[in-house]
Amino acid sequence: MTQPDWSEVESFLNAEDELRSRKRKTHHLPEEYYATTCAIYCVTLCARHHGKPFSLPAVAEGVVSALRYYRDKGLCRVYAYCLMPDHLHAVLSLCRAPLQPLIRKGEEAKSPPKDLMRLIADFKSYTTSQVAWKNDLHGKLWQRDFYDHIARYYEDFEAQRRYTLENPVRKGMVAEWEEYPWSGIMDDPPSP
Questions:
Q1: What are the angstrom distances between the C-alpha of 33 and each of 8, 27, 52, 109, 148?
Q2: pLDDT, tens digit, for every residue of 6-26?
Q3: Is residue 29 part of a domain?
Q4: Number of domains in the chain
Q5: Which H helix or E strand runs over 65?
Q6: Is the pLDDT of residue 2 over 70?
Q7: CATH code where residue 60 lies
Q8: How far apart are CA 140 and CA 145, in angstroms?
Q9: pLDDT tens across 38-90, in order?
Q10: Which strands, in side-by-side order, build the sheet including 76-83?
Q11: Continuous segment of H or E residues that includes residue 67
Q12: What is the rounded CA–CA span in Å between residue 140 and residue 153?
């Protein structure tokens, strides 16, 4: 019988320990940053295990309709969105609760009815059960987490909005972003 190579065993056990210690990590910003009406968020949600589920027109239409519903319900403003075959980009901000008074200069922002994390979780849950499953897709529609960025100044906001809208152009799907059926602008941009 041959003796084990202890360096391989140690390496294997260290790798197993590292895997066990990896838990869902919180987003990189403090929690309060995800619950303000003052921030403009640039988010990317990626599809999971389905390849390109948004290539199916009924699924793409359902996801865009859900985004519009959340916007029309007064939960967020959508400054730009683009639903690619395997992911969604959106530039948005949270809305304050409908009955809260307008914020005057120098006052703190009121908390929105949902923070960004809850809004995204609800959106992913809704689009999975009410759009994907009703169109014969199985399992989860989205990856567990999402990518986010907060626009730090107006030029950053504009760059993120252009990036979002121009995504199908960069991928060679259309010549102009306006030609792509699953992208658009729902709300006017904030003033610089």
A1: 44, 10, 32, 11, 11
A2: 566 556 556 655 655 455 555
A3: no
A4: 1
A5: helix 57-72
A6: no
A7: 3.30.70.1290
A8: 12
A9: 899 999 999 987 689 999 999 999 999 999 999 999 999 999 999 999 999 99
A10: 147-150, 41-46, 87-94, 76-83, 183-184
A11: helix 57-72
A12: 35
